Amino acid sequence: xxxxxxxxxxxxxxxxxxxxxxxxxxxxxxxxxxxxxxxxxxxxxxxxxxxxxxxxxxxxxxxxxxxxxxxxxxxxxxxxxxxxxxxxxxxxxxxxxxxxxxxxxxxxxxxxxxxxxxxxxxxxxxxxxxxxxxxxxxxxxxxxxxxxxxxxxxxxxxxxxxxxxxxxxxxxxxxxxxxxxxxxxxxxxxxxxxxxxx
Length: 198
Fold this sequence. Notes:
- With 198 residues, the chain is mainly β.
- It is built from two helices and 22 strands.
- Strands 1-4-7-10-15-18-20-21-22 form a nine-stranded mixed sheet. A six-stranded parallel sheet has the order 2-5-8-11-16-19, with no helix packed on it. Strands 3-6-9-14-17 form a five-stranded parallel sheet, with no helix packed on it.
- A hairpin with a 4-residue loop joins strand 20 and strand 21 (181-187).
- The radius of gyration is 19 Å and the shape is globular.
């Protein structure tokens, strides 16, 4: 109990009051969650599923269009100003950690591959096209990361700050850059990280 009070004492009075308000609102509207900080915006909340231990930072924006859905596993924590968009599906495993200002979308305004969209069509007039995104267990996503449609991130990955994920990433790797590329992979036999030559 003393540990809890010593942690609370590190915050300013205004932060304590905001957190108290968020805690009460969490228990009313997100009963399985640990803490959903306010403000938060969720479009089509019925298609947003989260599990025990879910926490968010402030100013998160979750948008679901049409038949899209978002499913978040147990003990996932997302930072401030995270923006998620789904018109197909975003699926998170258990134990994921997202830093602030992360953008994850399975959606594009049109697709030059499939629906005959042309550059002369205004982007807002193009139909939304969804391509599922899946994120495995225990994935750590750094500050300002962008994850684009149709990508799969394997279990245990670390995505470095400012990376742009455009392709699948294998499990237990560290990926950085734009586009994101694996630079190290964890070797379970030697219990160490090995450098990947790109």
